[in-house]
Amino acid sequence: MPDLAEPVLANEILDTSPTFVVGIDASGRTMYMNGTMLGALGYTRDEVIGQDYATMFVPVRDHDMLRRIFGDLVSSRGTTYNENRVLTRSGRELLVEWHGRSVYDDDGAFKYFYGVGIDITGQKRVREALYRSQQRLALHFHQAPLGMIEWDIDFRVVDWNPAAESIFGWSREQATGHHGQDLMVPPEIRPYVADIWEQIKQAKGPVRARNQNITKDGRLITCEWTNTSLVDEDGEIVGVASLVSDVTERVKEEAAMREREREQAATIEQLSAPVLDLWDGVLAMPVVGGIDAARAARMTESLLEAIVRSSARFTILDLTGASTMDASIASHLGDMIRATGLIGSECLVSGLGPGMARTLVELDVPLAVRTFGTLRAALRHAIRAARL
């Protein structure tokens, strides 16, 4: 009596297999489909047995491809491999990786073929997403305006994008495999760069630096670097990625701006203590804005130097442009008036308005000097007195 347990056991194994299993006869009709495939496609076994496989499960655009596959299976005595789409009841397409084989009777006549398939729809999406990500990364690497360099752990070039070629003059082929110190670092700063390299290998985050580099044609340029160590899944550093930009022109502009600011500061300082030669033996110093201790010292120094240089008999302090008057400013003015008197020049004060005069009275600050409402009046007095 034949043992019926073996085919029953085989069917149970096929039904619970995590792969798709399908048997198709010579006319293209479904003979068998395991539970895994039925569940994925959304059918019962009764609905699929005897149905034309291509019509029920294959998109129309793939019918010609499926016929070629079936033809290969009939003529082949080995296993075939292919990927094709399979339709679910809802119309969704699954991408399945099939391994097919033909079965023959004892006389060598073709009986049917069967396929074992793996649903790779999710894997395909992941592969495609990974491919697109790699493509975008490659485009970014090659089209980025910043130089992008990958180094190995020994500071040798692994990869080098077109922007790096433009900055340093070396092509990717010329740069690959060369040590960074030899390729682009001037001898005088190699110790500094070596120290930066050690910092990069020990740091957990980016290490930034600005230093001079040298190009293929020998030009010295200034570059800004952002360097990040590349770490594998075991936490071991396997290389370094660098972003680099040529900031030579920006550094020159910054230096030029600092020089302009220095010159402007010097000019402003001179203007903050101007001494005007109004007449033979008559000098004037306009006081504009507020006066602090530092400015008062500069004004006094400039005024005394001018008095000595010109042997001025009269010095006019014009307060027309002074912004405020308080005890501190009055004290500074008093110091200047006393200093001019000590070197033989009589000090006159002009432009002292009613508000300032009232403030001086309230503060009880005597200037002990002749005052005039306008610079013209003070100058007229000085000229007359100088003629006597």
What's the number of domains? 3
Runs with pLDDT <50, length 5+? 1-6
Number of strands: 15
CATH class designation of the largest domain: Alpha Beta
Give, in order, the helices and strands: HEEHHHHEEEHEEHHHHEEEHEEHEHEHEH
Shape: elongated
CATH architecture of the largest domain: 2-Layer Sandwich
Q: Please summarize the sheet with the most strands.
A: 5 strands, antiparallel
**CATH fourth-tier homologous superfamily of the largest domain:** PAS domain
CATH topology of the largest domain: Beta-Lactamase
Overall mean pLDDT stands at 84
Tell me the fraction of residues in β-strands, as a range. Answer: 25-35%
Estimated structural class:
alpha+beta
Give the CA-CA distance, first to last residue.
Answer: 156 Å
SSE blueprint:
Blueprint: H1 5-16, E1 20-25, E2 30-33, H2 35-41, H3 45-48, H4 53-57, H5 63-75, E3 79-87, E4 93-104, E5 110-119, H6 121-143, E6 147-151, E7 157-160, H7 162-168, H8 172-175, H9 180-184, H10 190-202, E8 207-214, E9 220-231, E10 237-246, H11 248-271, E11 276-279, E12 282-286, H12 293-310, E13 314-318, H13 327-342, E14 346-350, H14 354-363, E15 370-372, H15 375-387
Parallel strand pairs: 12-13, 13-14, 14-15
Antiparallel strand pairs: 1-2, 1-5, 3-4, 4-5, 6-7, 6-10, 8-9, 9-10, 11-12
